[in-house]
């Protein structure tokens, strides 16, 4: 055909490579479940000292998105460190797996066959793992699948790199928030901007399994300031609190004033760091003269942001009642 007459050829969308990391993960576990039958195949995320299942193909072990445990007790930890091979036909034969097997037994899981391989970022940092689990020992012939595991983990690493870059670019564009989503008094997100951020980011946090906590805050003294010093002083009080929170928040973590004296944020920290985070926020707000009741709850890939917001809100009101009991004058 003449070059000037060449036309683009349409390709069946099902034949196009996956662009989203979660789609690629689903394709990999579906394929492995057919090609290398085990009771469970999953892709996990390792972050914040925990290993969490992102996607799974399970036929009886109870491995599902959101299931996880401490990384220090994970079978995959010994695989990543090189203490155990990527394919372990009989887990009872490896002393290094004893802590992981004990943790599995506590969850009523009997894992005798293990297959795992790491998923890494371009710089070599660990993102997570592809993992296969079986309640019975595996035939030694399963070790022949190492080449397939290398191929599939490399595929996921490549898709992860591309998808992460695309998400980072989208987030940069989205940081130019419209006036309709900004609180005029404090410059933070307003309730509309907060709710749009949660809806927009829900899929991304589920896709990559990034650790995060929702923090809900309610200033303790705004009503007193308004009643005794007037609303101009109350506005200055709110701006001081907002500036203090802005200075204590990581770049990129959303911070919002939801209305009145209520603030909210999503902190990209692991659940184990939630307690220290709350104490730090309350300390800097106390120092600024804007004491605050705080509640925090972890994001879960299965339950999403709505449950985390509800749990954090309930914890905040519980904290407010406790603080009023301790300081009746507030």
UniProtKB/TrEMBL annotation:
Gene3D superfamilies per UniProt: 3.30.450.40, 3.30.70.270
Matching InterPro entries: Diguanylate_Cyclase, GAF, GAF-like_dom_sf, GGDEF_dom, Nucleotide_cyclase, Rev_trsase/Diguanyl_cyclase
GGDEF domain mapped to chain residues: 210-330
Protein name: GGDEF domain-containing protein
């Amino acid at each position: 055909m003449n070059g000037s007459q060449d036309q683009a050829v349409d390709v069946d969308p099902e034949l196009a490579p996956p662009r989203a990391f979660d789609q690629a993960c689903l394709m990999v576990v579906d394929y492995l479940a057919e090609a290398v039958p085990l009771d469970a195949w999953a892709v996990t995320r390792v972050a914040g000292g925990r290993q969490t299942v992102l996607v799974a193909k399970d036929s009886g072990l109870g491995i599902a998105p959101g299931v996880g445990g401490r990384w220090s007790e994970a079978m995959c930890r010994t695989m990543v460190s090189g203490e155990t091979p990527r394919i372990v036909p009989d887990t009872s034969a490896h002393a290094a797996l004893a802590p992981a097997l004990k943790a599995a037994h506590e969850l009523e899981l009997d894992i005798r066959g293990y297959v795992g391989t790491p998923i890494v970022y371009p710089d070599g940092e660990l993102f997570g793992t592809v993992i296969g689990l079986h309640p019975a020992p595996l035939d030694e012939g399963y070790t022949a699948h190492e080449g397939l595991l290398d191929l599939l983990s490399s595929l996921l690493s490549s898709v992860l790199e591309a998808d992460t870059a695309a998400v980072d670019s989208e987030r940069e564009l989205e940081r130019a928030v419209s006036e309709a989503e900004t609180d005029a008094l404090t410059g933070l997100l307003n309730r509309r901007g907060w709710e749009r951020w949660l809806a927009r980011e829900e899929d991304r946090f589920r896709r990559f399994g990034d650790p995060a906590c929702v923090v809900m805050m309610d200033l303790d003294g705004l009503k007193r300031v308004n009643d005794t010093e007037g609303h101009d002083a109350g506005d200055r009080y709110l701006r001081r609190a907002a500036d203090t929170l802005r200075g204590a928040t990581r770049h990129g973590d959303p911070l919002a004033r939801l209305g009145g004296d209520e603030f909210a944020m999503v902190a990209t920290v692991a659940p184990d760091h939630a307690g220290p985070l709350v104490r730090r926020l309350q300390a800097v707000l106390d120092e600024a003269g804007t004491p605050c009741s705080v509640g925090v709850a972890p994001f879960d890939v299965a339950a999403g942001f709505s449950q985390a917001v509800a749990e954090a809100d309930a914890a905040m009101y519980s904290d407010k009642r406790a603080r009023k009991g301790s300081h009746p004058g507030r």
